Amino acid sequence: MFRHTKLLILVLAAITTGPLAGQSVPANTTAASNCLPGKSYPRIYPDQRIIFQLHAPDAKEVLVDIVGKKFPMQKDTSGTWTVTTEPIVEGFHYYALNVDGVRVSDPSTYTYFGASAALSGIDVPAPDDMDFAAKDVAHGQVQAHYYYSGIRQATRRCFVYTPPGYDENPGKRYPVLYLQHGWGEDETGWSTQGKMNFILDNLLAEGKAEPMIVVMDNGDIAGLPFNVVNWDSAQSVTSTGKDKVEFQDLIIREIIPMIDESFRTIPDRDHRAMAGLSWGGLQTFEIVFNHMDQFAYLGAFSGALRLRDNVDITELYGGLLKKPEVVNRDMKLMWMGTGSEEGNWSQGFRDKLVELGVQNIQFYVSPGTAHEWLTWRRCLHEFAQKLFK
Amino acid sequence: MFRHTKLLILVLAAITTGPLAGQSVPANTTAASNCLPGKSYPRIYPDQRIIFQLHAPDAKEVLVDIVGKKFPMQKDTSGTWTVTTEPIVEGFHYYALNVDGVRVSDPSTYTYFGASAALSGIDVPAPDDMDFAAKDVAHGQVQAHYYYSGIRQATRRCFVYTPPGYDENPGKRYPVLYLQHGWGEDETGWSTQGKMNFILDNLLAEGKAEPMIVVMDNGDIAGLPFNVVNWDSAQSVTSTGKDKVEFQDLIIREIIPMIDESFRTIPDRDHRAMAGLSWGGLQTFEIVFNHMDQFAYLGAFSGALRLRDNVDITELYGGLLKKPEVVNRDMKLMWMGTGSEEGNWSQGFRDKLVELGVQNIQFYVSPGTAHEWLTWRRCLHEFAQKLFK
């Protein structure tokens, strides 16, 4: 039996001693904020071109794949492959390297859970980055909250943001936002690529948002081929695929009661919101419209995919949209957002709702962004200012 | 300027539709617990052989590298590379794939921060896995705690474990264990690969440990070539390399006061412990022995590297070991642990301390494990039962 008796640290030391150590870098470039400690690539020019680099003397073909857009790399005499891309739009982009036909993550950057995989990510600086940055303000805390689910018969994890002052004010109770990730992502998304804690911290420091608890659970939509998920009902199945319990049952029957027991919430609909991005927005419409007694605030960030089915939405949600006056009376906030570059499905769904008689939908368009996390960071930044007021 | 106007989700859907979907798997094997959702490889036999798989029709050479031990993979006619290893010792192992000479992480498994990189990891089942498993018991919570460091002039993050009941008993105060990761790792290590929260949860449920707060900060030893770190003084530098402030200054001057202000600690030496693994163990000796007024409990998990220098340790730590009676009088617990397969440096250091007159050192050897996380999970499981009693 193999036992690695050599000290691991010696091997680890060898790993980090790459041929790139100590080399000079192109002038007027900055290492991406996503670089691992000690790494100096990828680098970004002020005009948003990115230089990627990989040392791979024996590879035949290496390219960078940024959400489907491919940039072939060139090898120099030392065996280091490099490419400078065209300018890449600001925001967070998943990407991968492709080495001789194999999609792999970049050894130079942190990985993020997206597309049901550990993908590389790069943040191209945006003018409003300071809205999402860690500043010297009072910080709320994000905790991994473990609980046992009788429905799933497993220990599950959600992340819970508690605002600054939560521990210092043990008599105070807070409203709750349930905030969902997108397809192929998980409960880590909003507090990692989403920077939701810094967005809330900064808004609270400026007095622009109400203190709130934010719950981010796993929507159980990772690991499934996209077409397995039931498009019509936003039904999701567990990651094992062994049973099929909709996520709305989980959140209504287990997660909300568990959160109300574990945290100092104000446990009523007037102090409970739900929002989600992309598939999480679809789940949000499904869950809020089917459980109007539970939520008074709805946010959908690039989340109106329903229209693609050309289904009659008055037949959905228990027929709720046949009585738009109920929505108009009971919903304190109907908020939708989208990126300017991702198509107009959200606009189409908004128009459909208006046509059916739903009033007072607030609609936001993130300028210059597509179906990606900068759109959703901005959506949260806007949406959170309207909540619980 | 390139903007990805196609919907990201369509690209993501394509990513997960690999050629492996739906295929049968070898009998009598189990998918590793580290598999990403929807992935069924690597798989483990009861005798601890592992099958790795990668679809890479255009690659010339693919191998699996488990901490330096290499297993070449064979390609079948469909372009899928496979290897079945020899039996691999139980425990958590970092590993990588090597595709045509490029070290990459395995697209089938989660990545972990180690060796200053996002490395693949695999857990080979161990007989005592249930000590570290998520069971249906009361769970403490792990929170990401952000704070501003005046010394580093940056927002830093530590992880803090609070035991079950912390929120429900706002008048209760707790002892604190400062628990450090190893070289090339960061503040995520103990609550991810280390499973420290489940270890504590399970011990508390069985009444075998005292409720405690556990603080896991970043030891600032990632991203540096191993030989840059000052071996003699355990000095670490920041990840930017711009200044050189020892981690002991950070923990004594900033982190402990910040924790005592932010959490309901018992803020005295009799209720404060420090422990660390590997390089974190070296830091623990350095920090505790130089600050005996701050700590009454010490744990070193594979952490006695000092002896390799053949330095006179009575000259270190302000000459503390010239007065072993001070250590014997003031330290409530001197605990050391190591793996049976990683060499005897810890034993050597223990013998040196005993020779100098230090008494009552408790020493634990994890059977059959090397310099890796199963050793350290077991060390924490043993050590935590001795703390604050």
How would you portray this structure in words?
- With 389 residues, chain A is α+β, with helices and mostly antiparallel strands.
- The first copy, chain A, has 2 domains: 2-125, Immunoglobulin-like (Sandwich), CATH 2.60.40; 130-384, 3-Layer(aba) Sandwich (Rossmann fold), CATH 3.40.50.1820.
- In chain A, 20% of the residues lie in helices and 26% in strands.
- Chain A has 7 helices and 19 strands.
- Chain A has helices spanning 8-16, 196-205, 247-262, 279-290, 324-330, 345-356, 373-384, and strands at 30-31, 43-44, 50-55, 62-66, 69-72, 74-75, 80-84, 91-99, 102-104, 111-114, 117-124, 141-149, 154-162, 176-180, 213-216, 272-277, 297-301, 333-339, 361-366.
- The first copy, chain A, has an 8-stranded mixed sheet with strand order 12-13-15-14-16-17-18-19, sandwiched between helices. In chain A, strands 4, 5, 8, 9, 10 and 11 form a 6-stranded antiparallel sheet that branches.
- In chain A, helix 2 runs parallel beside helix 7 (373-384).
- The longest helix of chain A has 16 residues, at 247-262.
- The radius of gyration of chain A is 23 Å and the shape is globular.
- The first copy, chain A, starts with 7 loop residues before the first helix and ends in a 5-residue tail after the last helix.
- Residues 1-21 and 227-244 of chain A have low confidence and may be disordered.
- At the A-B interface, helix 1, strand 8, strand 9 and strand 12 of A face helix 1, strand 8, strand 9 and strand 12 of B.
- Strand 12 of chain A pairs antiparallel with strand 12 (141-149) of chain B.
